[in-house]
Design a protein that fits this description.
The chain is mainly α. It has a single domain, classed as Up-down Bundle (Cytochrome C Oxidase, Chain A), CATH 1.20.210.10. 77% of the residues lie in helices and 0% in strands. The protein contains 15 helices and no strands. The longest helix has 33 residues, at 176-208.
Length: 438
């Protein structure tokens, strides 16, 4: 069984249906994203990016933060009604953006973007009000900063959507290239990876039970301060086309993420609990970020503004997006979804009857299969990016990733179907009013 913290209060979070509904919808975006990539290729690039980063990753973050910020911080969620409202707004908005990009229906983009903005802003307001009453530590501090990044990402996204329809940016005196690079920087390094760094600071010590000493703790706290400052400078430098500012920010971002990767590796090596799919995927994250960092630093030192180096070195984008972002979300969901179901279904029976452990709720063989497939897909993509493998490798990577995504989604959906108290239609919408009333 995975390490189970004994000092959390599950009642501080929203009803179980709220985060689980986020995760179920996000899994649909994951499968849709990899399928669009296989079927549409480069023509569906923008749609795929929004399906995966906005739909899968961000909806997962919305659900996870809504559930666990109150639990970790020991404070009540500000509003359960707002928590129930954020998902339909954001999900419909993200889906609409993908449809608009695929169909080239430019007029749809501002409408869909507006719905997505409303959903994200509802989430930001609700979590900001919740965090206001929490004690400040590494995790809560980074989550608060991440909410600011989420707000800025949506503002930049609306600007880009309006520019595609009415040509707003020339009037505003901003170039599309600088706003696009700023938007992408705030999205990946700001909203997503700031949340990831904050979550890892809480999750990894909790679930490895590693005793790493004071030096690791101090180093981790220093990275937690320097990293968001680096994101602000990198994004601001790109928005203003100021290479010196962007270069300084990029180096701080690299230093912060490299530190997180090394600390993560140290804690995993010192783990005193049984190995699990969560920790296996975190090991991939540690290796990926340590390999990505030096090439990113070199690239951003030479040209921090170039589009080719948007996410670091042009040949290592898959290390960051798949190896770091993707595998953090994969690993976390392999614990969070079974954990929430277990707490609400079995925790009160513990000691009175035989109950399954958290890791027994999903199929370990399927978990091993999806990890192998997704790691292979990332390796094929990396091989293609570096020129080691021919162009067919990119197509193979997409196909293998689709297999891994379907296996992963099916494994977690089986947890909801087998052990959850509701059917999938009830979870996805049949009891929305009940969640709203609570």
């Amino acid at each position: 069984m995975s390490a189970l913290p004994g000092d959390i209060d599950a009642e501080a979070g929203p009803p179980m249906t709220v985060p689980l509904r986020h995760f179920a919808v996000a899994l649909g975006f994951l499968v849709a994203g990899v399928v669009v990539g296989v079927v549409s290729g480069r023509a569906g690039h923008l749609a795929q990016i929004h399906l995966l980063l906005a739909g899968w990753v961000c909806l997962t973050i919305l659900g996870a933060m809504t559930q666990f910020v109150p639990v970790w911080a020991g404070v009540e969620l500000h509003s359960r009604r707002l928590a129930a409202l954020q998902l339909p707004l954001a999900a419909v908005g993200f889906a609409g953006l993908a449809v608009g990009f695929l169909s080239r229906a430019e007029a749809l983009l501002p409408v869909a973007g507006g719905l997505a903005v409303l959903g994200v802003w509802v989430f930001c307001y609700n979590l900001a009000r919740t965090l206001w009453h929490a004690d400040l530590d590494v995790t809560t501090g980074l989550f608060g900063v991440a909410l600011g990044f989420f707000f800025l990402v949506t503002v930049a996204g609306v600007g880009l959507a309006l520019d595609r329809t009415v040509g707003l940016l020339p009037v505003a005196g901003v170039s599309r290239t600088t706003l696009l690079t700023g938007h992408a920087t705030l999205a990946v390094f700001g909203a997503v990876l700031t949340t990831v760094v904050g979550a890892l600071a809480q999750l990894v010590p909790m679930f490895t039970q590693a005793d790493t000493g004071r030096l690791v703790t101090v180093t981790e706290r220093a990275a937690a301060v320097g990293y968001p400052v680096g994101v602000v400078l990198l994004a601001g430098g790109r928005l203003s086309a100021h290479p010196t500012v962007a270069r300084a920010g990029g180096l701080l971002v690299v230093a912060g993420l490299a530190t997180v990767g090394l600390v993560l590796a140290r804690r995993l090596l010192g783990a005193t609990v049984d190995w699990s799919p969560m920790l296996t995927r975190y090991a991939v994250v540690a290796v990926s970020v340590v390999c990505w960092a030096p090439l990113a630093a070199l690239t951003w030192w030479r040209d921090p503004l170039g589009y080719a180096g948007l996410f670091g070195h042009s040949t290592t984008g898959s290390l960051l997006l798949v190896g770091v972002v993707g595998f953090v979300v994969l690993g976390t969901l392999y614990h969070v979804v079974p954990f929430i179901v277990w707490v609400h279904r079995y925790s009160d029976r513990l000691g009175f009857e035989d109950v399954p452990m958290i890791d027994d709720l999903y199929d370990g063989r399927v978990a091993a299969g999806d990890a192998t497939a997704l790691a292979a897909a990332g390796s094929l993509a990396l091989g293609h990016e570096t020129g080691v493998l021919p162009g067919i490798a990119a197509t193979a990577a997409g196909t293998v990733a689709a297999v891994g995504a379907v296996l992963f989604a099916a494994n977690l959906v089986s947890v909801l179907l087998t052990h959850g108290p509701q059917s999938m239609p009830e979870l996805l919408g049949g009891r929305l009013a009940h969640a709203w009333d609570r």
